[in-house]
Design goal:
The chain is mainly beta. The chain is built from 2 helices and 9 strands. It has helices spanning 2-14, 76-80, and strands at 25-35, 38-48, 54-64, 83-93, 95-99, 102-114, 119-132, 138-150, 152-166. Strands 1-2-3-4-6-7-8-9 form an 8-stranded antiparallel barrel. The radius of gyration is 21 Å and the shape is elongated.
Length: 167
């Protein structure tokens, strides 16, 4: 009797498919610091595919602050009104590292936006590591390298941290 029950259980489980964290969608919120004297905030929609690969559609605001030449330090005006830009873009994130409750993705993408005066485009490269939390929430860390093309060529390098909320 026991052997028959085990056989029935084994045959029934063959038809089951495990899809842990596959094809999951998330709303992402992240903030970061970039060299030199830059801050960014990002909101994104992430569509996961098989094996933790994903597509990310994002909107980013970037703020670069500087010292006020009159005061000799960062003031409210030199913080908020030195240089600002925004970008809309897409990133493909193939998974390169998997483990229990975490995975890592390379980020490869492009964006377009404005620095409030001219059009600027961007090429985005980096690495994102994600840790699974309870209830489908995820915590992520990113290392970024952005090449911004517009009124001159600029490099932005830094990191960010954020949360992914399940949809």
């Amino acid at each position: 009797m026991m052997k028959r029950m085990m056989l029935c259980l084994a045959v029934a489980s063959i038809g089951l498919v495990a899809n842990a964290q596959t094809n999951s969608n998330h709303l992402m919120f992240g903030v970061g610091a970039l060299y030199e004297k830059g801050l960014d905030a990002t909101i994104a929609y992430e569509h996961g595919s098989k094996y933790h690969n994903a597509w990310e559609y994002f909107a980013t605001g970037y703020l670069q602050y500087d010292d006020d030449p009159n005061a000799g330090h960062v003031t409210k005006k030199s913080f908020w009104h030195n240089y600002n830009s925004w970008h809309l873009g897409i990133v493909y994130k193939p998974c390169v590292n998997r483990g229990r409750n975490h995975h890592g993705n390379v980020r490869i993408g492009a964006s377009g936006g404005s620095d409030l005066h001219d059009f600027v485009g961007g090429v985005h490269l980096g690495y994102e590591h994600t840790y699974a939390l309870k209830g489908g929430w995820e915590l992520f860390f990113q290392v970024k390298e952005d090449v911004i093309i517009g009124s001159g060529l600029s490099w932005r390098t830094g990191g960010s941290v954020g949360l992914k909320l399940p949809l």
